[in-house]
């Protein structure tokens, strides 16, 4: 059976759904970051597949920029997480209620 | 035939690894499973002929991102079990609805865009890395530079946030103050 674009898009959807479930059920912020990485990777697969099946390199370019954004988001996010952990001793999402009005 | 076997094998492995990542209660298992999933995703890029993207995926994600996560986990208490949110009916219903809508949208998208034509078509007789270079350094030069500046800003922000005594400036304080801080550090170390 020939593997077409739809196969890759279905796989990308499944991975994206897994990432969404992870974002919804995780309390620990570090594991929440893992779930966002899954989301970005799922989108990258879809970009690369569309780039291949339409013979266009724009999809791959977008995938590169997504990887760059993921790396910088991680650097800043982990720095903020370390600051929060030094100050409060945990990284649970439910304890971060200081902004509640 | 070979492509189909490879696709289904790696699809199964990737889904299994990411499922472990979002469901396990051990942070270290989640980290390892995520790293394995990233490697398996690069296999899709190689199957799709995007060799350079696959290499970047391995280097950046499993080399840099995973090392950074492992470094970050040294700061946090990762040995205890991760507490999970108790199941909320509304969240489950909302998630299911969102996922169903997304599946429909993704299936409809290729039908809508059947008359899509290549904006920057593949160059004949060039390898994937060469093609990527040709497009990246002509059509996408400015986004490339902006991404470089963004990475630099992120690096500076990471150093300032995670480093010690970043609220002090050695150039703005007097020599005595700087010496005091230096002596205090030596006392702590000895």
What are the low-pLDDT stretches of chain B, counting only 5+ consecutive residues below 50? none
Radius of gyration of chain B (CA) equals 24 Å
For the termini of chain A, the CA-CA separation is 57 Å
Largest sheet of chain A: none
**Looking at CATH, which topology of the largest domain in chain B would you report?**
Four Helix Bundle (Hemerythrin (Met), subunit A)
- Taking pLDDT < 50 over at least 5 consecutive residues as the criterion, the unreliable ranges of chain A are none
Helix content of chain A: over 70%
Distance between the termini of chain B: 66 Å
Count all strands of chain B and give the number: 0
Could you say how many structural domains of chain A there are in total?
Answer: 1
The first-level CATH class of the largest domain in chain B is given as Mainly Alpha
Proportion of residues in β-strands of chain B: under 5%
User: In the CATH scheme, what's the topology name of chain A?
Assistant: Helix Hairpins
CATH architecture descriptor name of chain A: Orthogonal Bundle
Largest sheet, strands/sense/barrel of chain B: none
Tally of helical runs of chain A: 3
- How confident overall, as mean pLDDT of chain A? 85
Order of helices and strands of chain B: HHHHHHH
According to CATH, what is the class of chain A?
Answer: Mainly Alpha
**What would the principal axes of the Cα set say about the shape of chain B?**
extended
CATH superfamily grouping of the largest domain in chain B? NADH-ubiquinone/plastoquinone oxidoreductase chain 6, subunit NuoJ
